Structures are given as structure tokens and as C-alpha cells.
Amino acid sequence: MLRYAYLGPAGTFTEEALRQVASPDEAVYLPQTDVGSAIAAVRAGGADRAVVAIESTAEGGVTATLDSLATGSPLVLLREVLVPVQFTLVGPPGTRLADVRRVAAHPHAWVQCRRWLAAHLPGAVHVPATSNTAPAALLAEAAADPAALRSSTFDAALVPPAAVGTYALVPLAERVADNPSALTRFVVVGPPGPVPPPTGADKTTLVVHLPDNEAGALLAMLEQFAVRGVNLSRIESRPIGDALGRYSFSIDAEGHVTDERMGEVLMGLHRRCPYVRFLGSYPRADAVAPQVQVGTADADFVEARAWLERLRGGDPG
Amino acid sequence: MLRYAYLGPAGTFTEEALRQVASPDEAVYLPQTDVGSAIAAVRAGGADRAVVAIESTAEGGVTATLDSLATGSPLVLLREVLVPVQFTLVGPPGTRLADVRRVAAHPHAWVQCRRWLAAHLPGAVHVPATSNTAPAALLAEAAADPAALRSSTFDAALVPPAAVGTYALVPLAERVADNPSALTRFVVVGPPGPVPPPTGADKTTLVVHLPDNEAGALLAMLEQFAVRGVNLSRIESRPIGDALGRYSFSIDAEGHVTDERMGEVLMGLHRRCPYVRFLGSYPRADAVAPQVQVGTADADFVEARAWLERLRGGDPG
Amino acid sequence: MLRYAYLGPAGTFTEEALRQVASPDEAVYLPQTDVGSAIAAVRAGGADRAVVAIESTAEGGVTATLDSLATGSPLVLLREVLVPVQFTLVGPPGTRLADVRRVAAHPHAWVQCRRWLAAHLPGAVHVPATSNTAPAALLAEAAADPAALRSSTFDAALVPPAAVGTYALVPLAERVADNPSALTRFVVVGPPGPVPPPTGADKTTLVVHLPDNEAGALLAMLEQFAVRGVNLSRIESRPIGDALGRYSFSIDAEGHVTDERMGEVLMGLHRRCPYVRFLGSYPRADAVAPQVQVGTADADFVEARAWLERLRGGDPG
Amino acid sequence: MLRYAYLGPAGTFTEEALRQVASPDEAVYLPQTDVGSAIAAVRAGGADRAVVAIESTAEGGVTATLDSLATGSPLVLLREVLVPVQFTLVGPPGTRLADVRRVAAHPHAWVQCRRWLAAHLPGAVHVPATSNTAPAALLAEAAADPAALRSSTFDAALVPPAAVGTYALVPLAERVADNPSALTRFVVVGPPGPVPPPTGADKTTLVVHLPDNEAGALLAMLEQFAVRGVNLSRIESRPIGDALGRYSFSIDAEGHVTDERMGEVLMGLHRRCPYVRFLGSYPRADAVAPQVQVGTADADFVEARAWLERLRGGDPG
Predict the structure, then answer these.
(1) Are the beta carbons of D57 and D169 closer than 8 angstroms?
(2) Cross-chain CB nearest to D227 (options A194, A223, A294)
(3) Is the confidence at residue B159, as pLDDT, over 90?
(4) Per-residue pLDDT averaged across A48-72, rounded?
(5) Topology (CATH level 3) of domain A87-176
(6) Rounded to two decimals, what is the model's pTM?
């Protein structure tokens, strides 16, 4: 059974992502205290895979994930999983929604449910939690100990849906979220090895540094993609760390490393940029195939290569 | 006297930046608990200016600052200040460097001094602090109370140089940093008003959204700068928050809003992009003037405009 | 009455173009022996206008016209006229198509009717003529002198339709052409003066030199158009004449000099290129309006300029 | 012995070019009446090679050559030769420069020597000749027949230097030319076959059509070259002939078909453009090696390909 390191404890959104990948019956779940530890566990051999958030609609790129993958010993992405960012409001048994005055929530959770709270719990006070699942654990504890319950600093909590079953909590409201299409994107990270075969709807993730001190270097880098008809679905800058204004770019490009056009892009980047790290090709969670521009299908490259070989051999083409 | 909101308490790197702007004799210092509060204080009228970190060599863009400036009521940047990221190792009176075993440090500080610590304090243990100045306050307290000193969980602490005087501490080592050129860039934020006059070495900061669902939109946006010969010193992506893959770009461009070439770039962006926010033009801290490409000086624009007017008037030019 | 210099004699395609511009009752027709003389007549004041071919489907740019306009004292294009390249086969009275063995034709005319001739006059021999109208004149002469007719070296001739009436000839076949959509584009040339007002479907003609010894200079020049959404309907290279590989570009761009986007393109070219000559804005003969890209209408420029002025005045925009 | 078709008769500039390629002892010289006939002779098998002018400083591309090569059965360029455009002024025996009043010259020759003539033969009248060598033949004839000499319409002629020896003429002035660096570029044309090996300073000549009705198609075509660091030394438009504004581009690119970067450019053009004809790779006459941009040497491509193969095989690169 594969061992999966992930941001625990039980009940997190990350666990929800992990369940989409492998059920607890098929895999060993290894909860970690942070994203960096989950990734380090794979590098150190203590886990076979890590499941980590890489991007969310509200926060953008998860810098801990991006930075851990960009340097250090090589790892690759094997799969992506999308999880809706919707919370469940839970309370101790007997709590009625109308009685809730103090709501425990991680600050990010609070921000993403602010309008819902204003509408359904006007005047409710925010009790900051250190994680999404911490108040769930406290509530579970309190349910077993009336004294703990009385001294609780909150009446209800916003927790991930997966926490409800884990901690045997009572939901007061479900699918709580201001933006109903808010998502977090998770990736399954593993050691280098055979690339997942192309499905026709794949992504390739890269880390690219630009040549030093060159005006228009970002423009030139983007043209490497554009001229071969490869579209980008994500591009984010991260500091390289040696000087202000020096960036590493984290990129998701549409297509698979075995696509001819992607291969030519990768070689172009490798030739021109001081550093290119390949972080894997894997199926898109949404299974949307890219629009292939005229002249950029694999057959076009194969045909063009045969034509070039004829030219080089003295044939008019 | 102007009132400055900044990330306090006394002794922070931000205070060091603020001192470069206005001494405590000339200004009212209003320490805040976080960057968002400092910016909010200006919006609410409780402060005239905020001094906030916007970028660092190690962490890149400060997302709290970028996001606070990108939306909400308009604010502008009036000045930038660079502060070296170098720490002072401090201890209670009588401490010798050789005796130090446990070092209190904010996790970011620890990371940035790791090699120095391995060389000078091999085997020292990290005691995480909640801020750069928290251990300084504890040390100051302990100096006045031998009992507190005995129960202290650390022997020494990494603090900003400004904290040494503030808390009357004894330095064990100065200029502690793995990367001697590490910097944090701070900006002075204020309400909209007259733009600081051009100095010949200025920056203009912008927030730009790309048109929806358009392949090559980032390329097209960058060409608006390139075709007028305006270089970028920083470009960072931040999620817009409504869907995965939708970005807002935070940009520093070399030049001043009153430069002809910058004006044409701004108008081009405004015409083509769904959202452009001008966050100010202000002198570069390094006073480095941009290389002006052929045909992009103000005089070239003025001359070209006169030529066009002649053409439109029926004159051959 | 305006005096028009044009490539004569009577009956040429150029005369057909001129008739679309001004009938012989309304204008003085001044036939010239070549395009250069027609243009020179306007420069010297002997004519008010010249009507000259500038481009044809079969031959491309008319180099004599392009070169005459590109240098020398300034002239501008005031109008364009399209004339179909279709010939009339004429013969002496009494000739039957079936009897034709030898066909007089200017070499260009012969080339453009080759397939028609092969189909309708298989085996017919080409008797080269020095111009399109020369054989018409000979036929007219012969009609009045039976001896001349007997010694004629040809039985029939391919002439412009306008020549039939001029020389009172008998058509054997009309609309003779291999490519039924073949066209010649003529322009009306005059001294600099008020630009014809925009019609919404206009062209602007330019001559542009690239900066010396700069790789990518042509690419950079084309980007001046692309970034402002101005499309080109014609671009041709002509040697500058001082060294191999040095070119002058003759360009037709879609739009009018008074369009905001065209104005900005012209200023951009003027700023960056060593030489830009404006050869006029005038209505398109086909009256097809350009597709205006998002953000490039006049109102977008006006609005963007007002926004920039607000920014420069200290208003948040 | 190879048979060379060229624009004759003896004494032309083309013969001068041919002599640089093969002396009359080593080759069969087959003079032709025009460029088209010389090229046709190779296609028909009547000649092994054609030597034809393709470009001149004064006239630009030689359209007859460009058009003959762009369509019809495939031919390739094997070599280029540069010939200075300098004339020799010749007269009958006994003529003194001071006595010359009427100068026979092809109109192109006259234009290129106008300033020299104004300075050295003020007031001399131009007697147009039908070719550069026609007046040389007449002078040679006249030298043998005093009656012919007396009836001659000219006193002297501007002829190519090669004509002096051919016709045993007496030079009155040598190296007559207004632009001392004026050149004509000739190419040696042959049937398809082994490509001349790369010398490190080569040119590749192409014919490329753009995709129909696509704004920015020329820009996109040029980017195929730019993104791989291949510079152009010549680009000229020629009409395709089916409609106004439809062009075929004749291009000289710096490098050899066996260069990796040129191969990738050719494949990119072949994939994206409706028509690409390879007209050969051959040594530059000036032996100037191209500036190779960072990352575009053959070794860079080979290394990038090996890297890509490693990635595809599951190796981290």
C-alpha cells in the first residue's frame, strides 16, 4: 500500500483531496503538521506520495508548496484534484443556529464566509482558530466533558465537511461559502519516475528562471510558448531570493511532455533560460482538452521533420 | 506633524524604514499589529501615511500589502525605502557568545541566518518567536527580574538592529545574515493627491487585470510596455479570487506617470485591459535612471506629436 | 478644370481609371509616355493631378510609381480606383475569330490571357507589342489604308476595353482574362494639401525605413501597428539603393490619419524609424470598414487620455 | 564540363559573375536573351546551371529571377557571387574624353552614373541603349567600318568592364559609378541535389506564403525566425497573383539548412504556412559568420534534445 503524507489531522480539506486519490483502505494516511513536512517526507523516503494544496481561488499559489517543489531534490506532480471550498457550520449537540453568537474559524475560512455570516448570523463574533480542524477537535472533546463545554470560548465553528464525520459533530448549516465556485487545487507529489501517459487533456508544470538583466526576458520566454501554440493556464512569480526583482516563474502549460509542441517549448526554454525544472505532466482534473492551433498537432511536427530530412538530403521537399 | 501607521511595536524593521522617512521628533508614530491595519488606518483617516513592506529578497511580494492596495478605496505610493535584512544577536547582560545554546527567532529570521548560526553557534536550538521583536521585549523584562531570567526558554535572540536601542539590549553579534545583500523594500502609502515630481529615476506601480479567456493576453499586455521602451523592474501575479487561473498583476515600471512613454503605456493598458489601478509614481531608492531607448524620450514624443499635427493639417510633415 | 497627367495615349487602362475620377468634359486629360513623367508633371506644376497604377494582382507593386513617390518633393494620394484587368480582342473589319492566327499583345497582356488563348485560339502566335494600345493604333491606321492592312504582322490584338471606342475597332471577344478577378489599382496623386476627410473605410499609405543594422527591426516596426490594432492591407519592400539588404517599406494601413490609433502608430514609427513619409489617407475603393479591435476606437483613446490627465493631476483615476 | 546558361551576350555583368564561378576553359558558356530563358534552360536540361542576377543595390530584387524560382519545377541556389556595378566609358579609337557629347547607355546604367557624367561630361546627351552591351557591339562594328562610324548616333558608351576585352574597345574612363559600393548579387542555380556543405557563413533562401486572411500573419511568420535566433538578410514581397494584397515572401536567412536552429525555423514555417519552398543553402559571398545568440548553437539543441528525452523517460532531467 502506498503511503501518503498530507496536511492533517483527519478532517482537513487536504484529507478530502486525498480520499479522491485513495481510500483509507487502499493506502496508508500519514498526517503532517505542514505542507513542507509532507513534501519532505517524500524526499526522505518516509512517504511514497504527498498530497498538498498548490493553488486556491482566494489565495492564489500556495507559496510553501511552490517553493518546496522549485528547489531541493527533484519531485514530480502525478495528478491534480479539485476540492470545493465550502464549510460546514457545526456546534455542540442541542445548539440552534439562532443562538450562535461566537464562531470559531481559521481567519481564511472567516474571510471566505463573511457575507454568509452577515446574512445568517448578523453580529456574530469571530474567534480565530489556528487551523480549520482545531475547533472541531475542541468541540468533540467538549461533547464528552460538560465542564469543557461551559468554558468554551465559542458556540459554533466553521469546519471542512470531512471533519463532521471524523469528529462526530452536528451540522448547523452546510455548503457555507460566499463564492460557490471557490476551489482549492491539490496535487499528488512523488519521486521522479515514469510520466503518467497522455490523456489528451493534460497539464505540464514548470519552474523557469529568466536570464539576468535582460529587458524583455519575460516577453521572450512567453513567446517560446506562443510560437508553438501552447497556452498557459497559470503563471506565477516567486522571488529567487538573491536580489529584489529577480523572479522564478511557476507555470502550468496546457499539454503533455510527450506532445511534440510541448517538447519543442521545453527545449526552447532549456536552451534560453538559465534554469528550467520539469515538475511533471498529468491529467487535468477538469478533463478539458486544449484547442490545438493549426499546424501544431503531433502529426504536423512529424510531417515537418520528414520534410526537413528530405531537404537536408537534397530532395526539393 | 504627519501621523505614520506602521507595523510595530518599536524596534521592528518597519520602524527602521520609518526612521529613514521621518524622525520621531518630526512625526507621530502609530504602531499597528499588522500591515492590513496600517493601511486601513490611512483609509479611515486615523493616520496620514502608512509605512509597509511590499517586497523582500527572501519572500518576494508581501501579499497582505499587495492585496490591500489592489482593491478598496484608492491609495498611492509616495516613496520607497530599502532596509538591509541583517539581524543583531542579543542576550541578557553577561552572556558570552560561546555559551549560547537556545536562540529565539521568528521562523523567517532563523531561515535567513541558518548558515551563520551553523558556523558560529553549531548545535544551537531554534526557539520560535511570534515576531522579530517579541524576544527583545522578553529579554528586557528579564533584565529587570532575575526570576524571569532563570525561567527563560532561550539564551539569546535574533532581533532587528533597531530593537537593540529600544530595549537597551547587549549585542553579541551584529550584521548577522546569510545573504549580505538581502533587502526589504518598504513603501510610504498615502491618500491620492499631487504626484511626487519626477526626479529622472522613478518607478510607477500598477495593478492590471487581463482580459478574460484570451490566450496570449499576458504577452499582449507586456508588449504595451515593450513597444514604448518601458522596462519593468517587478511583475507579480496575485489571484483575482473568482476562479482558478485568473490573475491580477502587480507591476513596477521604470519611469514616472508624467513621462510621455509611460503615459502612452498607461493609456494603452487602460484601453485594452478591464482594470488598471495607478498606485503612484515615486523616486527610486537606488536613484538609478532608466536607459532611455532611441525614440522614447519626452522630446521624441513632443516632436512626433507636432509632426502628426502637421500631417493632419495637410502639411507633408 | 483640373489637369490630369496619366499614362496615355487614349484607350489605356489608366485612362479607364481616370474616367472614373473625372470625365473628359470636367477635366483636362494630359497623356504622358510613362508613370514617372505623369508624377513629374504634378511636381513641376504642369498638371494638378496624376493618375498612376500602383499595384496589380499579377505584377504586384508598380515599382516606378512606388519609387517616384518614396523620394523627391512630397506628394500625396487622394483617392484609389480599381480597374478589372480584362482585355478585348479586336481585329480589322471582317475578321472572324476562327481566322485569327497572329495576335498582337503587350507581353504582360499575353501572359494574363494565355489560357483563354489556348482554349479559343489554339496555336495562335504572339506578336509582341510595345504597349497595350500600340496595336489598336496600327489597326485603326490599317482600317483607313488597305496596303497597311495587308502588310500587318498580326490579325488581331488584345487591347483595353477603353481602346475599342477610342480607335473605332470591332470587338471579336470581350472580357478576355484568365483570372476573372484580376485588378489593377490606380491612385490619384496630388500636391500636399488638406487630407480627404475620413469616411470610416479609409487607407493610409506610408514609406518607412528601418533603423540600420538592427536584428528584429522589421518585427519591431510591425509591432507598432499590431499593438494599436491597426491592420495592414499591403506591405512591400523596395531597395533603398545604398547597400544590399537595405529596404524601404511601402505600406497601406487600414484607417485614416485622423483616427486616434493611426495617429499613435504614425508617431511611434516617426519616433523609432529613421525615415517615415506620409503619402496620404483616402477612401478605400471597396468601402470595406476595418474591424476595430476592443479598446482602439477613437472614444477609447479620448477616454484614456482624460483618465491619464486625471492621474497626472493627482486624482486616483 | 558543366554548361552554364546566363544573360548574354559576351561582356555582360552576368558574364563577369560567371567568370568568378568557372573560366571559359572549364565550362561551356551558353548566353541567353533573358533571365527567364537561362532558368528555363536548366529546367529543360539544356544547361546544368544558370547564373542570374537576383538583387542589386539600385533595383532591389530582380523580379524575373524571384518569380521564376518561386514557382515551376524545383531548382536550388548553389552559390552567390557579388559584382561591383561600375562601368567603363568606351569610345572609338582616337576619341578624347573632352570631345564626348552623346553617350550611349542602358537607362539603368545612365541613372547610376548621372552624377559622374554631370561632373566629367557636363551637357552630355543620353542615347538610350537596349542593353549594356549593345553599344559595345555597335562600336566594335564601327571600328571596322568608317561609314558606320560616321553614322553612329553616339560618341561614347557606358559598358560593363568585361565588354572592353570582349569587343576590343578603348577605355576613356574606368570605374564609373556614382555609388562606389553599388553591387549586383548573382546566384548559381541548379537542379535539386546534395546541398553544399555548411561553411559557418551560409545563407538559406526561401519562398513563403502567409496563411489567408489572418491579421498579424507576417508578424507571426517573422517570430518563427526571431524565437530561434535566426536573422534575415533579405525579405521581399512578391504578389501571389490571385488577388490584390496577397503576397509571397522571398527571404534570405542567415545560416544553413543543417543548422539546428534553421531546421526548427523551417519546420515551424512548414507547419504554419500554406506554402514554403526551400531554395537552397550556400556560402555567403562575404564569408561573414552570423552572430549566434545564446542558446541557439547546434550543441545547445543537441543538449536540449537529450534533456527532453531524459524527461520523457522519467528522469528528472
Answers:
(1) no
(2) A223
(3) yes
(4) 91
(5) D-Maltodextrin-Binding Protein; domain 2 (3.40.190)
(6) 0.89
